[in-house]
Specification:
The chain is α/β, with parallel strands linked by helices. The chain is 25% helix and 29% strand. The chain contains 5 helices and 15 strands. The strands form 4 sheets. A 7-stranded mixed sheet has the order 4-3-5-6-15-14-13. A hairpin with a 2-residue loop joins strand 13 and strand 14. The longest helix has 16 residues. The two termini are 21 Å apart. About 3% of the residues have low confidence.
């Protein structure tokens, strides 16, 4: 096998997993490095047509306002919504979380692909960035080694819908959550050596391929 992460496609037996990382702005290279570390096929996504050939998509941290403008300029908004409706998994970190959310405090409606409302820059400015070990609830397993989470101008999830599953908290605040095929994260898992959050997302991709 050319990669260790593969899934049955129901026809040919096995299929290499290909994950795209939106590469319009932000720390997309760090996500790609994590995917390569996991031996995953990783593609920089710069044009909407590229979404047709990938199994999962990561929207990285960065400037959400800038990314939103580029979404509209290049026609990504409808294509990403279509990608989501197809059942393929999406993973938004920091700015990606904001873009996928239902509503942003003081700004109004976003893409609305996951039933959460958020507050932008809720943990302070860039110079107030911090790291904190948090407990994760991945694959129905609580406890274990804490995840060293990096918060940089991070958004805060201030409301979750009834179908949103909480996967991680900082103190009493939700910072990692999932609804169906959407995973969102307020911190930056790509800035650590710990690959557990990315592995969880890859398993979402793998499970979706098995079902389709």
């Amino acid at each position: 096998m050319s990669r260790k992460w593969q899934a049955g496609d129901g026809k040919t037996g096995m299929k290499d997993i290909i994950v795209g990382v939106l590469a319009l702005q932000g720390d997309f290279r760090e996500h790609i490095n994590i995917l390569k570390k996991l031996d995953i096929g990783a593609v920089e996504i710069k044009f909407p047509y590229q979404l047709d050939s990938i199994d999962g998509l990561i929207i990285p941290g960065g400037e959400s306002t800038t990314i939103k403008k580029l979404f509209d300029r290049y026609g990504f908004r409808d294509r990403i919504s279509e990608f989501c409706r197809s059942g393929r998994p999406l993973f938004g970190t920091c700015a990606g979380l904001i873009l996928l959310a239902g509503d942003v405090s003081g700004e109004g409606r976003q893409m609305g692909l996951i039933d959460i409302d958020v507050e932008r820059n809720a943990y302070g400015r860039q110079i107030e960035s911090f790291e904190h070990g948090i407990s994760l609830n991945l694959n129905h397993k609580k406890g274990g080694r804490k995840f060293n989470s990096v918060f940089i101008r991070a958004p805060k999830i201030i409301r979750t819908g009834k179908n949103v599953k909480v996967l991680g908290k900082y103190e009493d605040q939700i910072v990692l959550a999932r609804e169906n095929n959407i995973l969102v994260c307020a911190f930056h898992p790509e800035l650590t050596e710990d690959t557990r959050v990315h592995e969880y997302f890859i398993n979402m991709v793998k499970d979706n391929l098995k079902e389709h």
